[in-house]
Amino acid sequence: MSFRQTRWRFLAVSLAALILLGNNYSFDNPQALQTQIQQQLGINIIQFNLLYSVFALPNIFLTILGGMIIDRLGVRFGIFTFTLIVTIGQLIIALGGKFNQYSLMLLGRAIFGVASENLIIAQSTFVSLWFKGTELATVRYSNLIQAMGIIMTVPELGGALNSLLTPLIYNSSQKLSVPLFVSVGFCLFSFCCGVVLVYLDKYAEKYDQRCEQQV
C-alpha cells in the first residue's frame, strides 16, 4: 500500500489546508483596518483600493507561470517557495505600516499577490497527488469529500479570524503595525506547516520507492 493511502494523508491534507491560513488571514487586513490605514497614511479611497489592485494584477498572468513552475520543479518546491513569499510580502506590508510608508505597503501587497494564488494552485496539485486514481471517483470518494471539506474550511477560518481579531488587536494596541505583524505570525505558522508538509511528502515518495524495490 502506498504511504499516501494510509491515514497519514489526513495529516497531510490538514497541513495543506493550514498553508493557506496565513494567506487568508492576511488578505483582508486592509479591509479590517481601512479607517486606520487611511488616517495614519493620509491616503484617499482610490489609493486604499490600490492595495487590492496591486494584489490582483499580477495574478492575471503569473498564475500561468506559477503553474509551469510547479509542473517543472514540483509541488514541494511550489509549496515551500510560495508560502515563503507570502510571508515575506506580509512582512513588508507590516513594515510599511510601522514606518507609515504607503509605497512599501503597495510593494508588499504586490509580492503577496504574486504568491497567493499560486499557493492555491500548489495546494490543489498536492491534494490531487494524495487522492488520485480510482479513489477519486469510486469506493473512497467520501474520503475525498472529507479532504475537500478540510481544504475549504480552514482557509475561510483565517478570513473570519481576521475580521474578528484584527480590529480588537488594533483597539488594544492603538498601533497599525501590531495587527499587521500578527498577520506575519499567521503567515509564518503557515510557512512552517508547509515545511512539514514538504518533508512528509518527500518521506512518502521514499517510502513508496522502497516498497517497490522490495516487491
UniProtKB/TrEMBL annotation:
Residues 1-26 form the signal peptide. It catalyses: L-alpha-aminoacyl-L-histidine(out) = L-alpha-aminoacyl-L-histidine(in); L-alanyl-L-lysine(out) = L-alanyl-L-lysine(in); L-histidyl-L-alpha-amino acid(out) = L-histidyl-L-alpha-amino acid(in); L-lysyl-glycine(out) = L-lysyl-glycine(in). The chain crosses the membrane at residues 50-70, 77-97, 109-131, 176-200. Keywords: Lysosome, Membrane, Signal, Transmembrane, Transmembrane helix, Transport. It comes from the Eukaryota. The keyword tRNA processing does not apply. It is a multi-pass membrane protein. Belongs to the major facilitator superfamily. Lysosomal dipeptide uniporter that selectively exports lysine, arginine or histidine-containing dipeptides with a net positive charge from the lysosome lumen into the cytosol. Could play a role in a specific type of protein O-glycosylation indirectly regulating macrophages migration and tissue invasion. Also essential for liver homeostasis. Homodimer. Interacts with lysosomal protein GLMP (via lumenal domain); the interaction starts while both proteins are still in the endoplasmic reticulum and is required for stabilization of MFSD1 in lysosomes but has no direct effect on its targeting to lysosomes or transporter activity. This is Lysosomal dipeptide transporter MFSD1. The lineage of its organism: Eukaryota, Sar, Alveolata, Ciliophora, Intramacronucleata.
